[in-house]
C-alpha cells in the first residue's frame, strides 16, 4: 500500500534559540488560561455597576416620592445622639448607671415615621413599663412574706397568672388595634422585675432607673418627632382619601374618552394608564387602617382639631373601594368580551347608548372631582348635586331605552357595559351616611365657605355621597337585555 503523505516538518531557523521555541509553544496555553479569568472579572464588574445604578435609581425614586423620609432618617440620628449624652456625661451616668442603655433601646424601637405612630408606641411603652414595674415590686413584697421556700413558688405563680391574662387580652380586637405593643412591653417588664427580684437586693432602685431611662427615651422621641419636621398621620389619611376619589374620577374620564367618544375604538385599554389607576384604591385598606389608628393618637394640629371625625375617613375609604371593585368588574368585562361580538345593526340605538354612557361617566367623574376638592379644602361642594342629577337622568334615560322591546342581541357588548354603568350610577344600598355619626350635627350648606369646626364640615356632602360613594355593583349580571 502506498504510504500516506506525511506532514512537512518545519525546521527551526538557525537564528531561533531553544528559549524562543519553548515560549512560542506555550503562547496558546497562556491565552487559554488568561481569557476566562479576564472575562469573569469584567462580567463581575459589569454586574456590580448595574447593581449600583439600580440602587441609585431606587434611592432617587424613594426620595422623590416622599422627601420627608430623608428628614425622618436625620431625626432618628438626632434622637440617638441626644439620648447618648446620658451615657457619655459622667454625672448623668452615675445617676442612672448601666440602665442608661434602655434609653437608647427605647429610641430605636419607639421612633416611628409619623407623629401618631411615635405617640402610640411611646405612650404604650411608658405606661406599660410604669404599671408592670409597680406590679413587679408589689409581687416581690408579697412573695417575701412567704419565706425563702415559698418566695420562688409565689413569684412563679404571679408570673404565670399575669402573663397568661395579659396575653389573652391581646386577642381582644380593641386592645389588639391600639394597645398590643403596650401589652407586650407590660409582659416583658413584669417578668423581668418579678423574676430578677429573687436575686437582686436593690429592686426598687433598679425599677426606678428602668422607668426613668425609658421615660427619657420616650420624651426624646416625642420631642424630636413633634417639633422637628413633623409628619402627621391624620394629614396623610386626609390626602389619601381625597386622592382615591381623584383616581376613580380618572378612570371614568378615561373610559369616556377611550370607549364612548365619537372616535373611540376601545382597543388596547390594558396599556392605558387610566385603566390601572383604580387598582391602587383596591389595595389601600392596610395603609388607611394604619393611618387611622395613628391619627387617633395625635393632638390637634392645623385644620384638624380635637375630636376630629377620623372614623368617617374609614367609611369613605371603604366606599371608595366598593366603587373600585365595581370598576374592576366593568373593566374585566370590557377587556375579556370578544370584540367580534360587538357589531351592531341598529346604529341609532348604539349611538344613543354610547352617548348616555359618555354622559354618565363624565358627570360622575365631575362629581367625584368636586367631592375630592371639597374634602381637601373642607368646604361645601358647589356643583356636585348638579353633576349627580345629570348622571342619574342619563342613567334613567338609558334604562328606559334598554327596557323597550327592541332586538338587543346585536349590541350585547355595549348593552352590558351600559347596564353595568347604570347599576353603578343608580344603585341605592343601605348607606352609613344615615347613621347617627353623620346626623350628629348640622353644617352650613353655603358653597365654598368653611363651615364651623371640622366635625360639622363632614356632613356637607352626605347627600352626594349617598348617590356616588355608596354604589354597589350587583354581580348577578342582571341587565336589561332581551
TrEMBL record:
Pfam family name, one: ALMT
Comp. bias regions, Low complexity: 434-445
Keywords carried by this UniProt record: Ion channel, Ion transport, Membrane, Transmembrane, Transmembrane helix, Transport
GO cellular component term, pick one: membrane
Region (Disordered): 433-457
Transmembrane domains' residue ranges: 70-89, 95-115, 127-147, 153-172, 179-199, 211-233
Compartments (UniProt record): Membrane
GO biological process, one term: malate transport
Top-level taxon: Eukaryota
Membrane topology term: Multi-pass membrane protein
Family: Belongs to the aromatic acid exporter (TC 2.A.85) family.
UniProt name for this protein: Aluminum-activated malate transporter 1
